[in-house]
Amino acid sequence: MNAHLPATALIAEDEPLLREELAESLHKLWPELVIVAEADDGAEALRLMQLHGPEVLFLDIEMPSVTGLDVARQAAACAHVVFVTAYDQYAIAAFEEGAVDYVMKPVTLPRLAIAVQRLKERLGSRPADLSALIADIARQKGEGQAHMRWINASVGTSIKLITVDEICYFRADTKYTRVVTAASESLIRKSIKDLVERLDPEQFWQIHRSTLVNVKQIAGLARDLRGHLHVKLKERAEELPVSEAFAHLFRQM
Length: 253
What we know:
- The protein is an alpha/beta fold.
- 30% of the residues lie in helices and 31% in strands.
- It has 2 domains: 8-143, Response regulator (Rossmann fold); 160-250, CATH 2.40.50.1020.
- The strands form 4 sheets. A 5-stranded parallel beta sheet has the order 2-1-3-4-5, sandwiched between helices.
- The radius of gyration is 20 Å and the shape is elongated.
């Protein structure tokens, strides 16, 4: 880094409010840092990275299509990486393998301040080689060892943190997915397909192309006049239709 020029950074995060909060927090903690670009997915992050050549990348590990891991792999040793993650084991691995740092969601100012300090100390050195770390995390993802533990959902102009145990079900809603708990409903931008890949399959069953249900929230089953199955919930009055493709899940119930 040129000592006379401010450091530059790119933020890649698919949740708009989280991305905005991270940018605002960085401005408070490191006002000299120039955020040259923000991306809402990995593909855009790659394009912007090539365009702007930032020295620092704040990458959400889990993004649709092109992930933060894919971006970090392309970045090679050209930029310092801070992983933003909801997964403890990813974060620990990132730190131990020599990544600049990690921040856990939801991002807090004290923890981000530590990451900023470490970045400032390392900007004059060569960025860490993350190839071993990326391969290890990709392996963990493939083996299903890390499952989503909470959801960051948009409620008005704020972000609501919802643990997966609170969730009764997910249902596709046009471009969004509705997150339904016993007492509330929120929207997220992740698709049902994406959630199937990230959630514990022992806890969340897909019962319809548009619906995932928390097994712990199932109270029982009912059949309508046509013989179609419906899931009855412990804490919600509505019943969820089960498509024929997923009816086999309930044969032992």
